[in-house]
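Subject: Histidine kinase domain-containing protein

B.,
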Amino acid sequence: MVFVIVPNSCVENNHKNKKNKLILAVVLVSLGLQIVMECIGNSSVSIIMTHLAPFFIVWMFYREDGVSVAISYNILYLICGLMALFSSFFCEIIKSQFPIEYIEISALLCVYSINCIFILLILINKNIFYKIYRTIKTRNISIVFLILLTFFLDLLLIFTKVINSSKEVIYTSCVLIIIVLVFIGATLYFAVIERRAREIEKLNNALEGRIEELRKVKHDYGAQISYLYGLHLMKRYERAGELLKDIINGHNSINDAIEISNNSDSVISIITKGIKHNGINIILDEQADLNNIDITELELQRVLSNIISNAVTAMDGQGTLAIRTYENFNDIIICVRNNGPMIGNIIIDKIFESGFSTKKNINKEHGFGLAIVKETVEKCNGKISVTSDIEKTEFIIILPRKKV
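Prediction pasted inline below.
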């Protein structure tokens, strides 16, 4: 039941199923699990089959929003699998405290009671699970990594089942739990690398498009120059001058920078279009809904335009500026990252102070932008921080969600 109700709460509203379809999905999942147990029994293969069978049934009901189902189901399965490992570990401790004739009963009661309480807590606190789901989804963690992680967990559960008769079950369980945690950490690390690789791939694809555009311009220029040369030979200099002026006016709008955005109508996209960033590539990856934060559009514009303008100035017409938004439980995070020059430690400690500026500030006209940014963010109960090294400078803005 939990593998149907929880994914249903995570999919988009227009894809949520009504009560009768939910009941049908629960019945089919239960039948599928029953058939698996009847055909395969309590073997090691049954662990993988009980993972896959419910997933495909649930996916069929929500295939129009398959990505959300895949993410929510595998997160839930991962949590339940880890809980199974912990309950197995706890079960071995309980066994040692009971007489031999009560060991099996005590073990079953221990495992089933822990799992039942855990599932009940998930159903009661679906909103907490939804926040976990949104946190993972908006960070663009690869679905493939998530699925591989759940299958790795299956292998650990199978391994636990095989060695369950060993005398050192508690020690083995501890080792398995550590392996799982290390694998999760490694998966998250490689997921971050993959996300950055996707950013580079998008930028390369956009550059290919720009190169193709420049090839066309080159071809066009070739034909036009040949025509101008013909006018020169005919000594029609006035006409040649007029055409040359038209050529210059026709192509002087070509921008050598790339802008990639997954939401061209968003506030952030509008801000970046309003700031001159010739030569600087812009990547916008917006995964969070900025309408859900308790800040006005004007305040958000004031905050981001100051940070982006400062970044563009520091980058001096070259490099890449990446802006990401994602969710983190009760907050929405805006990350503005550029690969411009490093900000020194002395400067970075004073960067949000009113009146502080690295520019010539004889008339005291500079040094208020980032101070206003910090004041605005904190007025909205948010936080802002900045880090800088030789590879990147990154501003992190954390803003709380609106209270429903």
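Residues 1-167 form one domain.

T.
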